[in-house]
């Protein structure tokens, strides 16, 4: 069953984010707290959204954490999927596809033109899964990121 996340899901979502970080070999980079997730999803100005996959006992076994983006080229919103994760014991049960299908429906229902996400290059099983859905890599674009000291240095140039 796929449903919108509710406040009671925050601890499960946070735990799954840490599982995802471990899976992506970057556990030491993950510092998010349940309070931050709660504020992002359910605070006074939510900027992030989530759907969960729940099993028959209503235990969260998968998450899709996303936010709206905007294309200046077509003047329409889209969805950027920040995290998609299904518990290893539940993989192959259709939860990942159901989460993506739910976000695709969110796009179609709201007139959004894109559903986008990133995947680490070494994650061959996920890449094969995405390609089985007819998703295509956007390999003509390179993602850049500023964090830590370089981010602070650039910010200090503003007077």
Strand and helix layout:
Elements: E1 2-4, H1 10-23, H2 34-42, E2 49-54, E3 60-71, E4 76-86, H3 95-110, E5 115-117, H4 124-132, H5 148-155
Parallel strand pairs: 4-5
Antiparallel strand pairs: 1-2, 2-3, 3-4
Helix pairs in contact: 1-2
Question: Could you give a quick summary of the protein structure above?
Answer:
With 159 residues, the protein is an alpha+beta fold.
Give me some keywords for this one:
alpha+beta, 5 strands, 22% strand, Diverse_Substrate_AcTransf
Task: Tell me what the structure shows.
There is one protein chain. The chain is 35% helix and 22% strand. With 159 residues, it is an alpha+beta fold. Strands 1-2-3-4-5 form a 5-stranded mixed β-sheet. It is globular. The relative contact order is 0.13. The model has no long low-confidence stretch (mean pLDDT 95). GO terms for molecular function: N-acetyltransferase activity. Residues 1-156 form the N-acetyltransferase domain. It comes from Rhodococcus opacus. Keywords: Acyltransferase, Transferase. InterPro entries: Acyl_CoA_acyltransferase, Diverse_Substrate_AcTransf, GNAT_dom.
Q: SSE string, helix = H, strand = E?
A: EHHEEEHEHH
Gyration radius over CA: 17 Å
Low-confidence stretches: none
Task: Name the shape in a single word.
Answer: globular
Family: Belongs to the acetyltransferase family.
Domain N-acetyltransferase: 1-156
Protein name: GNAT family N-acetyltransferase
Keywords: Acyltransferase, Transferase
């Amino acid at each position: 069953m796929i449903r919108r996340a509710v406040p009671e899901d925050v601890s499960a979502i946070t735990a799954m984010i840490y599982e995802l970080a471990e899976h992506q070999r970057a556990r030491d980079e993950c510092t998010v707290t349940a309070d931050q997730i709660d504020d992002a999803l359910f605070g006074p100005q939510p900027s992030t959204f989530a759907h969960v996959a729940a099993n028959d006992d209503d235990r969260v076994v998968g998450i899709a954490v996303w936010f709206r983006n905007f294309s200046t080229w077509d003047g329409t919103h889209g969805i950027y999927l920040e995290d998609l994760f299904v518990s290893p014991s539940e993989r192959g049960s259709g939860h990942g596809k159901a989460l993506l299908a739910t976000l695709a429906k969110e796009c179609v229902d709201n007139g959004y033109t894109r559903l986008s996400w990133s995947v680490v290059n070494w994650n061959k099983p996920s890449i094969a899964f995405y390609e089985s859905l007819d998703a295509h890599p956007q390999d003509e674009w390179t993602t850049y990121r500023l964090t830590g000291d370089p981010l602070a240095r650039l910010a200090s140039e503003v007077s």
